[in-house]
Amino acid sequence: MSAEHIHLKGITWNHSRGFVPMAATAQRFSELHPNVSITWEKRSLQQFADESIQQLAERFDLLVIDHPWAGFAARTGSILPLDEHLPAAFLADQEANTVGHSYESYSFSGHQWALPIDAATPVAASRPDLLAKHGLAVPQTFDELLQLADRGLVAFALIPIDTLMSFYMFCCSLGEDPCQREDEVVSEAVGVQALQMFRELASKVDAACFQRNPIQVYEAMTQTDSLAYCPFAYGYSNYARRGYARQLLHFHDLVSLQPGGTPMRSTLGGTGLAISAKCQHVDVAAAYAEFVASPGCQQTLYFDNGGQPGHLAAWQDAHTNQQSHDYFRATLPTLQRAFLRPRYHGHMFFQDHAGEPVRQYLMHGGDERALLQQLNQLYRESRQMQAAEAQVTEAAAQR
């Protein structure tokens, strides 16, 4: 590494799970490499989902990104293909120790666009003390969940993006992964059933849920004593750690739709660490990325500072599980079967626009078939964006 002083800037998201581990790893990396300083800035969770990584890559060297941006990244070249800058053996270890589809989620067009430093999917959460107070057990089936919701003890996130991810989950759990065809999101039969089941449950929770993201749901569960169970929301191991919140949450696999059936399949989330194509010190940025994603860091420094690791060794580690009331062991099966949503260029358009119509249906009811047609129109528009880009790329290659 060069002896000159090198300063890198990074952008992550505004939560203890998103910011603190990056600040801690940057501090330690600078101690190991005194000529390097790394500063991290943060943006809101909504900005994290919405703001273009192309814009961020103009201003930052390191980016913590959401995997649906992979196709966009491949098209724009705004971030670097890490397979051209990191050792093959290291990437092979990352792939072999992926949590579910986390590693694959950042692979697109033959390249690896980010390292999966954080793994997450919607999982179930409970307040064991409140369930015990009411003489109740963690629900195992959808019918048991509905019965618990009838008692006013259930909450989950219903802002547009989380609503869409949960709609995907219902479709997957009914046996059909969404967005697998060019012209429709899901078959009418499965789509109607998914929407009706989703609305039946959503009608039983407080209307405040329609304004909450997962963090806000977990804060409501831990700061008040009125909510005992969340059936699905992107998991945050922080809330299972002593001292983080007023009350501890325990986390679980999802309910099954039928007694004795397979638990539901949720929609993969998590975050990846990417390097801007504008970075002037790629070798240093790559070394830092390798440090953060390494199993040793993921199991200790990264986790101990609030991170939710992306390396399988950390999910199976005795230390991380002891400190989080077995969050990782309990929810690993949920991660391992989670649905990998589309990442083609254009899908961000669908993701940005499809959640609100579903949310409106959950709040007010309506014609499920008409809603599915509305989603299909948005979906076809997003696919046309992909096709148009492919034509531009092909024309450029022929010039």
From TrEMBL:
Its localization reads: Periplasm
Q: Does the keyword Ribonucleoprotein apply?
A: no
Which SUPFAM superfamilies does the record associate with it?
A: Periplasmic binding protein-like II (SSF53850)
Broad class of where this protein is predominantly found? periplasm
Family in the record:
Belongs to the bacterial solute-binding protein 1 family.
PANTHER family found in the cross-reference section: ABC TRANSPORTER PERIPLASMIC-BINDING PROTEIN YCJN-RELATED, ARABINOSE-BINDING PROTEIN-RELATED
Q: What is this protein called?
A: Extracellular solute-binding protein
Specify the species. Answer: Hymenobacter busanensis
